[in-house]
Amino acid sequence: RSRLARVLDVIIRPDVTYVSVKVSSIVSQLTTIDHDGDPGAGGTARFAHESEERLAALFDFYGIAWEYEPVEFVLEWDATGRPAAAFRPDFYLPEHKMFVELTTLRQELVTRKHAKLRRLEELYPEVRVRLLHRRDYANLVLKERLAVASAGPPGGSARSA
Question: What pLDDT, on the 0 to 100 scale, is given for residue 75?
Fold first, then answer.
């Protein structure tokens, strides 16, 4: 199994709450993968960021079923009982009964996202959400690129330099 598949296996484990991965400067040179949308929805997913699109393509590549932003969790209500703040995780992995939230934001914005996740855990303790930071995402993409490169050209075998 590829290293990326092993990393994804760790991410979905219920006993794992944080995954940290080092990434080299090559990440800025990577290209994106086109993705036609959520296969489970019968239509085209409209991703908020290209990193979400790329992660969806990685899920597809490894045969991991996913849904894009299927649920919004209310985190706060105003005085009249209407939702005042909410959180919509990027992906739901139905076979693993967990959500994945991808963030490629600057640290000061990530801090707010962490606060929302803590609030979600308080209100909905049964909901499993794994947060992937920019470095986690970049490492997954790098590992995927290395796996594709090591496979060699179609119909041939991989060669080492």
Answer: 94
Token pair 């985190």: residue = 75
CB 87 within 8 A of CB 73: yes
DSSP annotation string for 32-101: P------TTTTS----SSHHHHHHHHHHHHTT---EES---EEEEE-TTS-EEEEE--SEEETTTTEEEE
Is the pLDDT score of 6 beyond 70? Answer: no
pTM of the predicted model as reported, rounded to 2 decimal places: 0.62
Structure tokens at 79: 């005085």
Percent pLDDT > 70 in the chain is: 64
Contact indicator for 58, 144 with CB cutoff of 8 Å: yes
